[in-house]
Design goal:
This is PEGA domain protein. There is one protein chain. By secondary structure, this protein is of the alpha+beta class. It has a domain of 88 residues: Immunoglobulin-like (Sandwich), CATH 2.60.40. It contains 4 helices and 7 strands, in the order H-E-E-E-E-E-E-H-E-H-H. Strand 5 and strand 6 form a beta hairpin. It is elongated, with a radius of gyration of 32 Å. The N and C termini lie far apart (121 Å).
Length: 163
């Protein structure tokens, strides 16, 4: 009698354990795999996503959240490009459907986002022109327009005369 009670108890424990394992297995099946791929022309550009270097193009990274993301592309000999890329939320990620797609759907949903950007070659400014522009900016900084001084409520400074 005691042996039979122990057998039925262990069978119940095994059944519960099997049921729990099956439930966990099913819960792990349903999920959304989100991946963003950035390609550039020319390739091998440094890709910075939201201030974090993620690699050289083409590069692919997983993401969790939708919305606006800042992508910065850097390559020697090309103008640095900064893009505010909107990643729109798909219909199946709105409440209450998101719970179903994230937890209950027994297969994996793949959300792939591919972005292609072209970089412009950088233009070399002749050094004479660059020096002239620097001198102009320096002069404008030392001699602000009267209207700007009035708006800032600053009196123009007149150099003191020494005898």
């Amino acid at each position: 009698m005691i042996k039979r009670f122990a057998d039925s108890r262990s069978a119940t424990s095994r059944g519960r354990l099997f049921g729990l394992a099956a439930l966990l297995g099913l819960a792990c099946l349903g999920c959304v795999d989100r991946r963003m791929t950035v390609r550039t022309i020319p390739s091998n550009s440094l890709v910075i996503l939201d201030g974090q270097e993620i690699g050289h193009s083409p590069v692919s990274v997983p993401f969790t959240y939708y919305g606006d993301r800042q992508i910065k592309l850097v390559k020697d000999g090309y103008e640095t490009k900064t893009i505010n890329q909107k990643i729109s939320t798909p219909w199946y990620e709105f409440v209450p459907l998101d719970f179903v797609t994230e937890v209950l759907v027994p297969w994996k949903i793949h959300d792939r986002r591919n972005y292609l950007y072209s970089l412009e070659p950088s233009v070399m400014v002749p050094s004479d022109e660059l020096l002239q522009r620097a001198a102009d900016v320096r002069f404008e900084g030392q001699h602000p327009p009267e209207e700007a001084l009035k708006r800032a409520k600053v009196e123009p400074q007149v150099p003191a005369l020494t005898p």
